[in-house]
Specification:
The structure holds 2 protein chains of 2 kinds. Chain A is α+β, with helices and mostly antiparallel strands. Helix content of chain A is 59%, strand content 11%. Chain B is an alpha+beta fold. Chain B folds into 3 domains: 78 residues, no CATH class; 110 residues, Beta Barrel (Butyryl-CoA Dehydrogenase, subunit A, domain 2), CATH 2.40.110.10; 127 residues, Butyryl-CoA Dehydrogenase, subunit A, domain 3, CATH 1.20.140. The longest helix of chain B is centred in the last third of the chain and has 33 residues. Classes of the chains: A alpha+beta, B alpha+beta.
């Protein structure tokens, strides 16, 4: 069990941060929301260039075979910069699903493209994930059910509250895998995608806190920065506390990938990000309630991801099922 | 990081299994209960388990931070008695080791480890609560020492303890006019008035000082350096030592057990809150392990301690409120299993107030960690 980041992992996080900060991710997200995927796809290619899309792919299939902690670090940074596209699906769940199916032909068909970033993938995994996210940007759409994994096509696309995001029903076609081993692979993909989504939420929550602190220091009313008012300070302190205590749960989930730990992380990261979003909007005031300000990219992404990859109620139920079933041990 | 400490965990677990009294002791905040808890501390000390993290020459084992956390996990999981010497063990002792003289450590720490001397904290005053540096109780120079006068209040354990440590005004400057002093609670010029707390027991007291003498040997650090020294103690109180995760881990495990036995519609509707209590306890545990790893690697604990203080104190209240809601109409009972939950609840209510109110902590977080303007 290792909860602390290595020096290499910290270096990886800060290099991703620098790359995304220099690449105008919010601008790409706005263009993506307007239907122009090209700057966003260019961003994905840059991320592929530093290995983000190869982390969850095994070395034998052109990937890096990195740890889940590395995937978490990457997805947290992508959430931090509101990178558009099916992040949890393409960077974590689909590579894990195909890898776990352990079928050489399937691996050879899809994994090298995913690792290289030439292929963006999404999936539906009902009832957990009833729709495929961002199918319009995906070159591979899967329908993962306990009995079978199929290629799928996207039904009528529906717009998400997150303007960069859409949901589509997945219509199953060619069967890629079926049989008893499929259920385990689908379960692995479910944990991997949920973990990545939780990491995105934590990153988004961090960005919202940073934006709020910056705004509270710069915005003056009654002749003083609003950040000097205790009512503002205490809201933001609570946001900081929520984020601080969600992070270790995310780290633990990346180590075990167990349903109990993944669900605990998703509950905590969602809660912390939602608290960050509420406080950020309140601290920004009316300007935060507009699409003119970039804040809306994070506010709406948090709301969208809060319900994706399992509801809060569903995750709490999984935690209780695990611990009431003798999983109370703390280590 | 690993929580594998080899045979240490097993030794602690086995010893506790053999020695923890069956059923709870009488409340530590009654005369009889205090005496019984002192006996328990002596049993712990005889097994060299009362202060595992201290150096051996003071009665400890030189255990690492990680081993201390393991000890705490086992201690609370075994439902062992409350630590009556807590204020001295976790607040004064680290202060003496950091700021005291070798003579003070040699003289004061061994009897503290054996519970021959139990210490109370004498910081707050009627007019100095959150604004602690506003203390007025004074120490004036006398031949070979100092004379104390003034009033201290909300002094935990002072009703039955032997000695106290506190901050006294020795100069005009708000912060640099304070001195850290030790005094006997049964000495001449000291009057202790026990105060009944919310639950009816005399868990703290008011201390009236009228010319009590403190020899120079019982000044900790230099005169005028008391605020800096006290703040380093406050860091311990808010941070790792006072609220080890074992306490919440054990309480969350008991809550899950209570929930499982309860069943029925109430339990169904409370499921999410039980889950959140467990998740919170797990988060605090993992966070503390991470902090321990960081400290072991040479890091320091500063204003970050405020994050933990707000988190654990609110977790504790929410956890116990959930337990009482599960107990429903039986939650008001003072005895038996219900009474244990109720006592835990009443104790938890003090958490957001003591060791620096949560309002003070949030301000510290906002100003020192987030960088918001004062």
């Amino acid at each position: 069990m290792t909860l602390t980041r290595s020096a290499e992992q910290q270096q990886f996080a800060s290099s991703l941060h620098d790359l995304l900060a220099a690449a105008d991710a919010p601008g790409a997200a706005r263009r993506w929301a307007g239907g122009d995927h090209s700057p966003g796809l260019a961003l994905w290619r840059k991320l592929a260039g530093v290995g983000v899309t190869a982390l969850a792919v095994p070395p034998g299939a052109g990937g890096l075979g990195a740890s889940w902690l590395d995937v978490v670090i990457a997805c947290e940074e992508l959430g931090h910069h509101a990178v558009p596209g099916p992040v949890a699906e393409s960077a974590a769940a689909v590579p894990e699903l195909i890898t776990a199916l352990a079928d050489e032909r399937l691996s050879a068909r899809w994994l090298p493209g995913l690792a290289a970033g030439d292929l963006i993938a999404t999936l539906a995994l009902p009832p957990w994930l009833p729709y495929a996210a961002d199918a319009g940007a995906a070159g591979l759409i899967l329908l993962a059910e306990p009995g079978a994994v199929r290629l799928a096509t996207a039904g009528t696309r529906r717009q998400s509250v997150d303007p960069t995001r859409s949901l589509s029903p997945a219509r199953g076609g060619e069967v890629l895998a079926r049989g008893p081993a499929v259920a385990d692979a689908v379960a692995r993909a479910r944990e991997a995608g949920t973990l990545a989504c939780a990491a995105q939420l934590l990153g988004a929550g961090r960005a919202l806190l940073e934006a709020s602190v910056l705004h509270a220091r710069q915005r003056s009313q009654f002749g003083r920065p609003i950040g000097s008012f205790q009512a503002v300070k205490h809201q933001l302190a609570d946001v900081a506390i929520g984020l601080e205590f969600a992070r270790p749960l995310l780290g633990e989930a990346a180590v075990t990938l167990s349903p109990r730990d993944v669900s605990a992380a998703k509950v905590a990261c969602t809660g912390a990000a939602q608290r960050a979003a509420r406080a950020a909007l309140q601290v920004h005031g009316a300007i935060g309630y507009t699409q003119e300000h970039d804040l809306h990219l994070w506010l709406t992404k948090v709301r969208a991801l809060a319900g994706a990859w399992g509801s809060q109620a569903g995750h709490r139920a999984r935690v209780m099922a695990a611990i009431a079933d003798g999983g109370l041990a703390w280590n | 990081m690993s929580t594998d400490t080899g045979g240490f965990r097993a030794e602690v677990r086995d010893w506790l299994r053999a020695h923890v009294p069956a059923g709870p002791l009488p409340s530590v905040d009654t005369a009889a209960g205090f005496a019984r808890h002192r006996e328990w501390e002596r049993e712990l000390a005889a097994a060299r388990l009362s202060v595992v993290s201290w150096p051996p020459r003071y009665g400890g084992r030189g255990a690492s931070l990680l081993e201390w956390l393991v000890f705490e996990e086992e201690y609370y999981a075994a439902a062992a008695p409350a630590r009556v010497g807590q204020n001295g063990l976790f607040l004064l002792a680290p202060t003496l080791m950091r700021h005291g003289t070798a003579e003070q450590c040699d003289r004061l720490l061994p009897p503290m480890a054996r519970a021959d001397e139990i210490w109370a904290q004498a910081w707050s005053e009627p007019e100095a609560g959150s604004d602690l540096a506003a203390v007025r109780a004074s120490a004036t120079r006398a031949d070979g020492g100092w004379l104390l006068s003034g009033t201290k209040t909300w002094s935990s354990r002072a009703a039955f303890a032997d000695k106290a440590f506190g901050l006294f005004r020795t100069g005009q400057d708000k912060h640099r006019g304070l001195t850290y002093l030790l005094f006997g609670l049964r000495a001449d010029g000291v009057t202790v008035r026990p105060i009944r707390q919310l639950g009816g027991e005399t868990g703290f007291a008011e201390i009236f000082l009228d010319g009590a003498f403190v020899p120079d040997a019982d000044v900790v650090g230099a005169p005028g350096d008391g605020w800096r020294i006290a703040m380093s103690t406050a860091g311990d109180e808010r941070g790792l030592s006072l609220r080890s995760p074992g306490r919440f881990s054990a309480a969350a495990a008991r809550l899950v057990e209570l929930w499982r036995r309860a069943g029925g519609p109430d339990a169904d509707s409370l499921r999410d809150r039980v889950a959140d209590a467990w998740i919170g306890a797990q988060a605090y545990r993992l966070h503390t392990l991470g902090t321990a790893a960081r400290l072991a690697a040479g890091g320091t604990l500063g204003a970050e301690a405020s994050l933990g203080k707000v988190f654990w104190s609110e977790l504790d209240v929410a956890l116990h409120e959930t337990a009482l809601d599960l107990l429903g109409p039986r939650a008001e009972l003072r005895e038996g299993e219900e009474g244990c939950w109720l006592d835990g609840y009443l104790f938890s209510l003090a958490g957001p107030i003591y060791a620096g109110t949560n309002e003070i902590q949030r301000t510290v977080i906002a100003e020192r960690l987030l960088g918001l303007p004062r």
